[in-house]
Known about the structure:
The complex is a heterodimer of chains A (226) and B (794). Chain A is built from 2 helices and 16 strands. Chain A is mainly beta and 226 residues long. The relative contact order of chain A is 0.27. In chain B, the strands form 5 sheets. An 8-stranded mixed barrel of chain B has the order 18-19-21-22-23-24-25-26, surrounded by 5 helices. Chain B has a 5-stranded antiparallel β-sheet with strand order 2-1-5-4-3.
Amino acid sequence: MGVLPVRLLTRSIPAAARLCLWSLLPATAPCLELTLTDRDGAPVSGAVVTWAGEPAPEPQAPSVAQRDKTFVPHILAVRAGTEVRFPNFDRTRHHIYSFSPAKRFEVKLYGAGEAPTVTFDKPGTVVLGCNIHDWMLGYIFVTDADAFAVSDADGRLRIPDEDGGASELVVWHPELADGTPQPLEVAGSGIAGASVTPVTLPLERRPPPVRIRDPLQDLFDRQSRK
Amino acid sequence: MSFRARVFTVLLGLVALMEGATYLAMLNVTRDSLREQSEAQLRVGARVFDNLLASRADDLRVAARVIAADFGFKDAATSGDPETMRSALANHSLRIGADLAMLIGLDGRIVASTLPPEAAPGAFPFPELFEPATADESHSSVVMLGEQAVQLVVTPLNAPAQIAWVAIGVAVDDALLERFRELTNLSISFIGSTPEGVRLLASSLPANERPLPLDGGAGLHHYEMTELAAAGSRYLALARPIDESERITAVLKISLARAMATYAELRLRLSIVFVLALALAVLAARALAATVTRPLRRLARASHRIARGDYESRVEHEGSTEIDVLAKALNDMQQGIRDRQARIVYQSRHDSLTGLPNRAVATDRLDIGLRHARRKRHRFALLMLDLNGFKAINDRLGHEIGDRVLKEFARRLASALRPSDAVARLGGDEFLIQLSNAGVPQARETAHRVLEIGRQPVALDEFQLRIDLSIGIAAYPEHGQEREQLMRRADIAMYAAKDSAEGIAVYRHGQDEDHLRRLATIADLRRALDENALSVVYQPKMSLAACRANAVEALVRWEHPELGPISPADFIPLAEQAGLINRLTHWMLEQVLAQVAEWRESGLDVDASVNISAHDLLDEHLPELTGKLLERHRLPAEALTLEITESAVMRDTASARAVMERLQRRGVRLSIDDFGTGHSSLAQLKGLPVDELKIDKSFVLNLDEDAEDAVIVRSTVELAHNMGLAVTAEGVESETSLELLRAYGCDVVQGFYLSRPLDPERATRWLERYRADGRDAQGGDEGKTANGANAAIA
């Protein structure tokens, strides 16, 4: 595991922007804001960064919903020992499973409105799938680190930054280094105050699984492709 | 080479060439066709096999994907338990009839497989399949695994993200290839090449043929058809790679022997057919050559016949082929030649004007007649005809009239004769009739008939003409035995007929000899003239009134080398006949005038008289020549007297008169000689431009004895004087006669009593002696001598 080369551009961000972002934080907690992008400059969402230090606020009642035959969110991060709900908002039944060593489980065919729960006690990556809908793919990152955060759709992620702030940063993304957590180095700034740090992650993007709209159409297409 | 052989060879050559070409072409095409069929079969077989493999691959792929999608299989595969994984693999591969299955980690290592542990490799040997398997969700290929060819499918195992690869394989074994062979009739073998060498992976061939593809395998090029020969058979092979790395080659083979069996049979049959056709062609060619050459030879023979002169036998032809056209042309040509030949022969044997046979035919017929007569002891007679005065007709009335006369006469002649009598025109106005089986009497009879024909007038435009004929007859065998002889004697007889009253004369023995002698004499005379072998003698004349010899008569003398002296009475007529008389006269005049000139120069004043003939009177140049001669010798014209016999003068009075007048105009004196013996009338005499008459010696010779002669002489003298003419009497041989003549009043006398004719020398001496005194001349030496010698000179 190599150390991530990170580029810091602390001083290039305009003070106004800094002020703006700064205002969003709780007055007492100085933060480090990271913006994660891939090599193409596209925001990376769903990247989990864990650190040692003050525990960060965690979302209550973590869940991975099935909506429109998709796992929402695509990536969930939980502390080991957390119970996760799986509400089914689709009209069809789902048969979710995972063969990941961190948690092998399956929930067979539960219908709409039902929300089975599963407790994830071992840290690790759990890959979620649905036996009925092969394309459905989700990730649950189970961590036992002090604190963790997940980048949002814009690739933003806030890390507390003070003396005794975040340290031992580790970043994980399914498309990063084949799902192996990587240490993340962010050079500290002697400047008190917020700083937005863009981080580029060398992801190997994989195309999403092909979603089947119409099974029969799909069958027909396959046949004609042959 | 003969034409026939050439035709034969060409025909045969053509047929053989065509046959050969066809044969080869057919066989080639067939062989190529069969070969192409085999190749096509191979290619089709290859496609079939491709299809077979592809279809199996598809099935395998589908099956593999189904397996990989199976939840239970995923569960077993992610269990982590090797045994579980292995049995899941085995179970599922068994279900689909696969021969092996593998589970491969994403790192490429085989996690589990149905292979025996010792045979299972650690890493998946075909990582190149991963990428296409990802792209297409599955990928199949034929691979070599150990000693086997395996059709392998790789598909990702998604749970739900890809966690591993699943590989399923079905062996390509002999059974499969055998099934393929049953389907396509092609043998197929799979050959794998490894670093260690080439290995046979599977084959449809029976065990005993196994090594074969290997033997041929080395050197087989992919995708090319190659012909192999192995174990006595021939094969067509196609090698193609089966996998992408081209380590496995499929070799399809088809036996050519079967295909070629068809070809071999075809070749045999064709050969038989062509040999037969060739034999037929030989026969046909021979026959055709013959049909062409046979008629040609026939025509050639016909041409030879014509060349040899056979104009009769025709070449038979029917139909309208080119040969027949040629035969017909040959016949036409033959006809043409025959006609022309006949025409030429006719023209060569017939006279063109009258249509009668010509001289050549006459001679031939005479020869034939002679032979015939000799053999059969027959007689025959020749009649030689001549139209009198025909030359005059031509001259006066023109040749056109003359021709018409001849034509008419010939026509009449032909009609008057028997069929066995032969008529011919010898030329000009001469005709010959050959009477067979006839003697002189019959000949005479025929001659009379012919004369009668002539006497019937020929009507010509405005007037009529009568033909006078002279016919001479000579008969075989009395008048001659040879052709030339008979013809000549008939000719002589004809000339004799001209002088006879009836116009017909039969040859008399001796005439021929006379004739010949005459001919000889004429020739001699001509020579004598040429050589100046003649001589002139002079007989003095005395003028009774002047009693003086003041003139001479010049006479020609000829001494023939063999015959001796020939009398002028003999050779003058000959000269006239031979047309020599003019020359003779000219010569005489030259001699005489030269002599007279000589005399006058020496003081002898002498006149001379020269005898001329009727022919001379017809000579228009005579006056001129005479004038020239007189001039040359510077003599007065009166010194010359020309004596013409009475009968000569009377012959052609009109023309004679013209010449005589011209002579007289020059001053030359003219005298009528032998007066009293001709057939003149006084009326004719009256008009003639003469100066003198000479009484013929016949009246003077016996003057002293014959009273009648005396009367004649006396009256002639008187007559002459009354007409203004002088008179000379010749033949004075006695004094009595002389005195009588003097009494009658004759002017000049001439005769032996004075002198016989003297040669120039003696004449000169005589004239010198007696010039002064004529009286002395009488009874002088020469005269007396002459008397005695009278008889000698005759």
